[in-house]
Write a structure and sequence with these properties.
rod-shaped, about 20% strand, 2 helices, 3-stranded antiparallel beta sheet, 3 strands, single chain, alpha+beta
């Protein structure tokens, strides 16, 4: 006849080990989802800003429009990040018509991770995207 072991407290021990592990896995998955979503949103905002900048006739107006569009785009999609900077390179507006040129927009955002329950995650993570869009070759330009 076999002796049966005392199994009192086995379920409690399993819960003590499994629940924190499950919470950590969920925290890491949520962090990954936030980062992936933010990267997509920042990339789309940079593309929209670059396109909007090429529709302006001067470099200064293009830079202002690009910043406005990038911030509005991130706000519209309720981005998971706080826009840190929108840098616009409008140096192509100084080239004469007939020569190709591109406008470049760099958008940087900070994704908050501090509210997640996952040890080892930083408080925030920086996400960056840049996009270029060609200027109309034969359109008049001003710096």
């Amino acid at each position: 006849m076999t002796r049966r072991r005392d199994e009192r407290g086995a379920v409690a021990m399993e819960l003590v080990v499994l629940v924190p592990m499950l919470m950590m896995v969920l925290g890491v998955m949520t962090a990954g989802w936030r980062l992936w979503t933010a990267r997509t949103q920042v990339s789309d905002a940079a593309a929209a800003a670059a396109r909007a900048a090429t529709l302006e006739s001067s470099g200064q107006a293009a830079a202002e429009r690009a910043r406005l569009v990038a911030r509005a785009d991130l706000e519209t999609v309720k981005a998971e990040c706080d826009p840190s900077s929108v840098d616009v390179d409008t140096s192509a507006f100084a080239t004469p018509p007939g020569q190709p040129g591109k406008v470049r927009v760099d958008v940087t955002c900070r994704v908050r991770l501090s509210d997640l329950i996952a040890p080892g995650l930083p408080g925030s993570w920086q996400v960056q995207a840049n996009r270029e869009h060609s200027l109309d070759t034969f359109r008049e330009r001003r710096p």
